[in-house]
Amino acid sequence: MLCAGKKSYFAAAVCITVTSVLTVSYLRLQRLSHQPKVIQEGRRCRGKIANSTITALKGNKTFIISPYFDDRESKVIRLIGIVHHKDVKQLYCWFCCQPDRKIYVSKAKIDVHSDRFGFPYGAADIVCLEPENCDPTHVSIHQSPHGNIDQLPRFEIKNRKAETFSVDFTVCISAMFGNYNNVLQFIQSMEMYKILGVQKVVIYKNNCSHLMEEVLKFYVEEGTVEIIPWPINSHLRVSSKWHFMQDGTHIGYYGQITALNDCIYRNMERSKFVVLNDADEIILPLKHANWKAMMNSLQEQNPETSVFLFENHIFPETVSSHMFNISSWNTVPGVNILQHVYREPDRKEVINPRKMIVDPRKVIQTSVHSVLRAYGNSVKVPMDVALIYHCRKALQRDLPREYLIRDTTLWRYNSSLIKNVNKVLSQTML
């Protein structure tokens, strides 16, 4: 080490000062190397505007989802993408500034998210300083600072203008895949979200059944659902597992982590809160009637907190109650959650995973069960305040029924839920 072996206070002080100066100088040089540089003048902005959710860069093992303006620390463009964690070493942002008709190139910082779970490809932030006095509307990405911008796809930069919140709660669901056909449970979840105060649900859709397409169409026309096409298997060999199995796949769980990060930035300027959970999960408040009352209370008690984590509890779909066996629902494929009110007990050796309600403006990077980087604190919400109702296949399959815990919290909403589900089934003619 630079300071090893120094015994006197004076020598130590000199050593610390020198180290600090060298560190500052290094960081300054690093920042200068990333400053935008003019490479062409007098050019009009050309190049084809990218319209796909996922755009592959030619021969580069890099996939761009979308760029977002981010001025929380400095004025940068943060592109949400997917990259090969070893093979992608350098990328450059190409900006075309209309007022002075100059082309700027800015060296990108490539930040592959730490939660890659062994897969060769992972979610990444590709971050570039933007040119001063430019406010670019589009950006192109290239592996070289040289070339012709006309040959590069152009990506529209989102979040350029701060907006007033149009909704309080947005739910992000990623990703819908495997010819998804759990229609009844999906409708029930959607109607429960609305009862609890959700105005928007964003779904990253890979594929689903024809019947599910009809239901999604209904909710899109209603204005509740926004569909983000997610054709990730057109670009990479995807795994339906979250961890790498040495099976030749490229990325885990249909690129779920990338979609979640995109959803946070996509809704950063339009939603007060973003909820990260799956379609078979519902955050059920125990002390409050809805999410707004719950979050007002939680924020009052935790003023420096931006991430609220809710504990997941399994309600096995194989264990049923005879209540709410509604005959008109029996022809609809999927699970009737009102009949599943027995939850598995906690296991001593296992920590229950959590899902989140976050302030999107305070999140930098997220994983599935926690945030990786954020401004502000994360708080685990006590189970007596709320829990995640997760109706799915049992995890403790050999557990006798008498060891399950009867929990009828969901039934508090049964009247409104039944009425609303019947209305949807009637309008979609299911």
UniProtKB/TrEMBL annotation:
Keyword flag Glycosyltransferase: yes
Membrane topology of this protein: Single-pass membrane protein
Keyword Transmembrane belongs to the record: yes
Record's keyword terms, sorted: Glycosyltransferase, Membrane, Transferase, Transmembrane, Transmembrane helix
One GO CC term on file: membrane
Matches recorded under Pfam families: Glyco_transf_92 (PF01697)
Top-level taxonomic group: Eukaryota
Protein family according to the UniProt entry: Belongs to the glycosyltransferase 92 family.
Entry protein name: Glycosyltransferase family 92 protein
Organism name: Anthoscopus minutus (Southern penduline-tit)
Gene: Galt1
